[in-house]
């Protein structure tokens, strides 16, 4: 236990000297989704203003590189390719999924879907993009043909979708507090886990594939063994429905956010609190950098001078206080 305690102490101390925040305001409306490219070179944000902003990270500096416009509706979620750092997919309320290339700064594919899209997940092998819409229809896009190859309509509220590292197992969370695990491509139900007594909102796999975590309307985050499908522990420091979660690159830290005015960062093995980030409004998206302890996030912040207007900002926390 001493080793665990010293690791927790080390992490706590690290963030005492690495809690500086960099802020950017690339959008004219609320930021719905943030995410890092697989190499950590780029940070993308998708907004209600229908645009996607791309930033490069160099040292402790964020620089806006591009603004992708073209969607006719809100960009509700974005997802980078797992191994190609230049490709980004976006799900929009305009009933399309788009794929963007940061090298050419252009949209390389525009795939029509049957509803207003709210969530998206790219399979680890890069071959399939799953997208969910407001009517609880999940569509699977074959990236090689850019066509929808399968659709599944659910009779319950589908909240978030994700892939296991083998790209042959697909997970979704629902309004009944369950995690459904399906085989892909045949979409047969393998398991249904009753994870929470309330709506299960978000799901995230750790980078090693050993664990996944779920966030719920009961304000709990639960950590699961991905092989045994058993709950290992819960994180209970938040008081509002957990909207978004993210594992650090090494799987040691788990960030969780909600309408609480704080983002909670816990140590995965013990559940102990490592740090928290004070915020001024509800937080709906967080994402750890794939190679270092930097957390990108966006809150429902309002403009300093006009409280009716969204700030359209995103922040990155974890830079050295000396930088």
From TrEMBL:
WD repeats: from-to residues: 24-65, 68-110, 193-234
GO terms for biological process, alphabetical: mRNA export from nucleus
Keywords: Repeat, WD repeat
Pfam families found in the cross-reference section: Beta-prop_THOC3
Domain of life assignment: Eukaryota
Statement: the UniProt record of this protein carries the keyword Repeat: yes
Gene Ontology, cellular component aspect: THO complex part of transcription export complex
Keyword Phosphoprotein assigned: no
InterPro entries xrefs: Tex1/THOC3, WD40/YVTN_repeat-like_dom_sf, WD40_PAC1, WD40_repeat_CS, WD40_repeat_dom_sf, WD40_rpt
Protein family per UniProt: Belongs to the THOC3 family.
Protein name, UniProt field: THO complex subunit 3
């Amino acid at each position: 236990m001493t080793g665990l305690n010293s690791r927790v102490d080390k992490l706590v101390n690290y963030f005492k000297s690495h809690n500086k925040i960099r802020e950017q305001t690339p959008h004219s409306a609320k930021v719905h989704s943030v995410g890092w490219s697989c190499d950590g070179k780029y940070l993308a944000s998708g907004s209600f203003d229908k645009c996607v902003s791309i930033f490069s990270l160099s040292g402790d500096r964020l620089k806006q590189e591009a603004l992708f416009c073209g969607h006719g509706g809100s960009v509700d979620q974005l997802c980078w390719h797992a191994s190609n750092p230049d490709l980004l997919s976006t799900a929009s309320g305009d009933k399309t999924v788009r794929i963007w290339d940061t090298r050419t700064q252009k949209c390389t594919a525009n795939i029509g879907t049957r509803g207003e899209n709210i969530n998206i997940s790219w399979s680890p092998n890069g071959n399939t993009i799953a997208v969910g819409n407001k009517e609880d229809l999940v569509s699977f896009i074959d990236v090689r043909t850019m066509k929808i190859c399968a659709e599944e309509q659910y009779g319950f509220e589908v909240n978030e979708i994700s892939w296991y590292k083998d790209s042959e197992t697909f997970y979704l969370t629902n309004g009944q507090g369950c995690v459904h695990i399906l085989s892909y491509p045949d979409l047969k139900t393998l398991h249904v886990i009753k994870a929470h007594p309330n709506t299960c909102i978000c799901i995230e796999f750790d980078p090693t594939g050993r664990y996944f975590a779920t966030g719920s309307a009961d304000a709990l985050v639960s950590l699961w063994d991905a092989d045994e499908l058993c709950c290992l522990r819960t994180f209970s420091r938040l008081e509002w429905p957990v909207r978004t979660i993210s594992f650090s690159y090494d799987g040691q830290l788990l960030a969780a956010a909600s309408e609480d005015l704080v983002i909670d960062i816990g140590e995965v093995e013990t559940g102990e609190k490592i740090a928290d980030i004070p915020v001024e409004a509800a937080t709906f998206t967080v994402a750890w950098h794939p190679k270092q302890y930097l957390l990108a996030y966006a809150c429902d912040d309002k403009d300093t001078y006009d409280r009716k207007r969204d700030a359209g900002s995103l922040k990155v926390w974890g830079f050295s206080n000396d930088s």
